[in-house]
Amino acid sequence: MTCSSREFDYFKIPCSHAIVGAIMRNINPYSPCDEAYTMNSWILAYAEPIFPVGHVSTWNSSPEFVNISVEPPKTVPRVRRQKTARIPSTGEVRQTRKCDRYGAWGHNRKTCSEPLTTL
Q1: How far is CA 62 from CA 38, 50, 52, 119, in A?
Q2: From CA 62, how far away is CA 101, in angstroms rounded?
Q3: Which of 18, 47, 71, 83 has the most crowded CB, counting CB atoms within 10 A?
Q4: Nearest CA to 112 among 104, 54, 90, 55?
Q5: How far apart are CA 103 and CA 35, in angstroms?
Q6: Ramachandran region of residue 71, left (φ > 0), alpha (ψ -120 to 50) or beta?
Q7: Does pTM surpass 0.70?
Q8: 8 Å CB contact between 33 and 13
Q9: pLDDT tens, per residue, the chain with 119 residues
Q10: Which ranges carry the Zinc finger PMZ-type domain (predicted)?
Q11: Helix (H) or strand (E) holding 23
């Protein structure tokens, strides 16, 4: 089943056009739904109890994962038109950037190259 609005392709739930078409042809409008939305799937998904996660201090972490450093993903700068540099007015001072993550001056969070630390 497809529709020009592409809702069915994305959500796997029939859109309003498909429901009207199914009703006009005496077809159950729930039949084209994805298996994930059936009552059986929901019952199986929640059959086991779901326990809340405790406080961080109560977690049992294995020693090899306690103080690992996670590197930020490698980014490739996109090719784009260069920005024209604005000529500052007389007496205008350029404001230095401060990283939100570590508080270091000279770069921002987007261009930060420091590794992420775990708890």
Answers
A1: 39, 23, 20, 12
A2: 26
A3: 18
A4: 104
A5: 48
A6: beta
A7: no
A8: yes
A9: 556 767 777 778 888 888 888 899 998 888 878 888 888 998 998 899 888 888 888 888 777 877 788 888 888 878 888 777 888 888 888 788 888 887 888 888 888 888 776 65
A10: 1-28
A11: helix 16-24
